[in-house]
Amino acid sequence: MEDFINRVAQSALTSLNLEELIHPGERVVYDIKENLFHGLMLREKDFREFIKTHDWSQYDGKNVAIICSADAIVPTWAYMLLASKLQNHAHRYVFGTLEALDQELFHEAIAAINAEDFRDAKVVVKGCGTIPVPTYAYVAIMQKLLPVTSSIMYGEPCSTVPLYKRPKVQA
Sorted alphabetically, which Pfam families does this protein's record hold (predicted)? Predict the structure, then answer.
């Protein structure tokens, strides 16, 4: 009987799975519309009372997108006040949609990568997974890795799409 050789396992390829980089904390939306007076405007006295009495621990370790889904008058300081309370509870918070939150989380994760760990490596950026990875994360990882890698591919180690190969230096 012939032994099978796993050439993928023996290759010099380095796999990079972007979905493993993102913070696992739950993503939630905080809609300031719930604090509006008659759905139209924010009243400072009421809002400050809410800020003082709200249970902020429910955001512990979570990632929070702060929005206002109502067409209302909300002063900028209100969002800043919310941020001051989320600071000691949430892992990350942003003003914007869940998509903006994900972008910030991927930006943070990719910024934390030490590019030197990929110096002269042949990297395969995994393309399929259980968590959808937005296109901007793939573009950001290219920006991070292009200066140091010898090649970058997309897909799975057994089936890749070549994207970049460092030109050979002419002697």
Answer: DUF2480
